[in-house]
Amino acid sequence: MPDTPVTFKVFRCAPGGEASRFDTFEVAVPGHASVLDALDAIRVDIDPTLVYRHSCHHSSCGTCAMRINGRDRLACITPAHEAAAESSVQGTVTLEPLRGLPLQGDLMVDMRAFYRHFDEHWSTLRPSEGRAQAALPAGIERFTRLENCIECGCCVSACPVTGTETGDGTSFAGPAVLAAVRREMGRGPDVPEGLAALAFGPHGEQHCQRHLACSRACPNGVYPARAIMDLRRMRERKE
After folding, report:
1. For the segment 50-76, what is each residue's pLDDT rounded down to a tens digit?
2. SS3 sequence of the chain
3. Are 84 and 95 in contact (CB under 8 A)?
4. Mind listing the pLDDT tens digit for each residue in 112-127?
5. What is the value of pTM for the model shown?
6. Does pLDDT of 142 surpass 70?
7. What does each C-alpha distance from 129 to 157, 174, 228, 230 come to in angstroms?
8. Among 91, 103, 193, 216, which has the highest number of CB atoms less than 10 A from its own CB?
9. What gap in Å lies between CA 142 and CA 94, rounded to an integer?
10. CB atoms within 10 A of CB 3
């Protein structure tokens, strides 16, 4: 496909600065280009002040997560022309920052809020959930597929509860951290007190409303909602 123009409607805002707005850019996009490729072209050729996060360009790091036409997705693996075709305003791709996290500027959010409930002592290498083992490569006796979560924040943004105060004035820890808590609990029969407090305490699973939006938004096939329902069943068995 030859380069064809795509219109991007991009959220702009500098915290503490001028009020938020949308800027419109028209970019000639190759057929194979992703939304992230288009953002790079805008920043290099049109507006060098555009702020967004990215790193790997192949869906391994999760840093380019944003809302694309109202859906939480990774910009690096979302084809630009596909996004334009599926838009409610055909030919125009609307880009916004993730919800439920503090805004740093334009399309970039502060991920420190995402990690605030994660414990530095939790395991960093975990067996994968939700996907069958692949066939063993030649000459390999066994291998373990490691966890699929890339900590992109899409599930947090998609969750209608995360980032809002609950009825008792506390805030929901969010699907990503509770899914991680469930995985940590599965490492052995003895559940550390801190994990139980987070899972079943004032920030825990009790606030989940079962919208399942977190699982639908995950780009890597992790099912946070299933992990949260596991925690809920664990609590109910104890009561």
Report:
1. 999 999 998 889 999 999 999 999 999
2. CCCEEEEEEEEECCCCCCCCEEEEEEEEECCCCEHHHHHHHHHHHCCCCCCCCCCCCCCCCCCCEEEECCEEEEHHHCEHHHHHHHCCCCCEEEEECCCCCCEEECCEECCHHHHCCCCCCCCCCCECCCCCCCCCCCCCCCCCCECCCCCCCHHHHHCCCCCCECCCCCECCCHHHHHHHHHHHCCCCCCCHHHHHHHHCCCCHHHCCCCCHHHHHCCCCCCHHHHHHHHHHHHHHHC
3. no
4. 888 887 777 676 555 6
5. 0.84
6. no
7. 21, 18, 14, 13
8. 103
9. 45
10. 11
Structure tokens at 212: 């399942």
- The radius of gyration computed from the CA coordinates of the chain, to the nearest angstrom, equals 20
What are the tokens at 162? 């995360």
pLDDT at residue 147 in the model: 65
What amino acid occupies position 52? Answer: Y
Domains and CATH numbers, the chain: 4-109 (3.10.20.30), 112-237 (1.10.1060.10)
Q: pLDDT tens digits, residue range 17-52?
A: 678 999 999 999 998 999 999 999 999 999 999 999
Q: Which residues of 117-137 are buried (b: 16+ CB within 10 A; e: fewer)?
A: beeeebeeebebbeeeeeeee
